[in-house]
Amino acid sequence: MTDKPRLPEDEKQKEKKKKFYLTIFIVLLLLASFYLFWSALTTNPEEKAKESQPTPTTETTSQEAQKQEEYTIYKVQPGDTLFSIAKKFNVKMDDIIKINNLEDPNKLQVGQELKIPAVPTTQPTNQKSSTSQEQP
């Protein structure tokens, strides 16, 4: 007969434990939300953009002492593939592999710095048509 009055107290303790754990869960959830919100506020989007922007540099190779080869340094971002990087800079994947001596191009690491070969630019020529003549 003494067991019956204990059951409601055991249930009360179970309810207290549930409320306690629920409170802890809510507090942790709020802390995590506050952290994410705060970090988003303190991150400067301009600095983030500068980090992902390529930095142009020049390098003299030992094989071609006379010729200077221009390239850009690119820091690999999450989700980048060699194909996407090559497409972004309008260069061939093989050129990126060659200039960086990549053994396995499928194993890029976030933050890894890659040399991106410069694409030769062609300048448009401004030629006047032979049919256009100035009249006095």
How would you describe this protein?
It is a single chain. Strands 1-2-3 form a three-stranded antiparallel β-sheet. 47% of the residues lie in helices and 14% in strands. With 136 residues, it is an alpha+beta fold. It has two domains: 9-44; 52-117, LysM domain (Membrane-bound Lytic Murein Transglycosylase D, Chain A, Roll), CATH 3.10.350. It is elongated and about 80 Å long. It contains four helices and three strands.
Topology:
Blueprint (H helix, E strand, L loop, with lengths): L2 H40 L2 H8 L2 E6 L7 E8 L6 H8 L3 H8 L12 E5 L19
Antiparallel strand pairs: 1-2, 2-3
Task: Give a quick precis of the structure.
With 136 residues, this protein is an alpha+beta fold. The chain is built from four helices and three strands. It has helices spanning 3-42, 45-52, 82-89, 93-100, and strands at residues 55-60, 68-75, 113-117.
Strand order of the largest sheet: 1-2-3
Largest sheet: 3 strands, antiparallel
- Level-1 CATH class name of the largest domain: Alpha Beta
Average per-residue pLDDT, rounded, comes to 75
- Unreliable parts: 122-132
Please provide the ordered H/E string of secondary-structure elements: HHEEHHE
CATH homologous superfamily grouping of the largest domain: LysM domain
> What's the number of helices?
4
Cα end-to-end separation: 124 Å
| Rg, Cα atoms, Å | 32 Å
Overall number of structural domains = 2
Task: Estimate what percentage of residues fall within beta strands.
Answer: 5-15%
Estimate the global geometry from the Cα principal axes. elongated
Strand tally is: 3
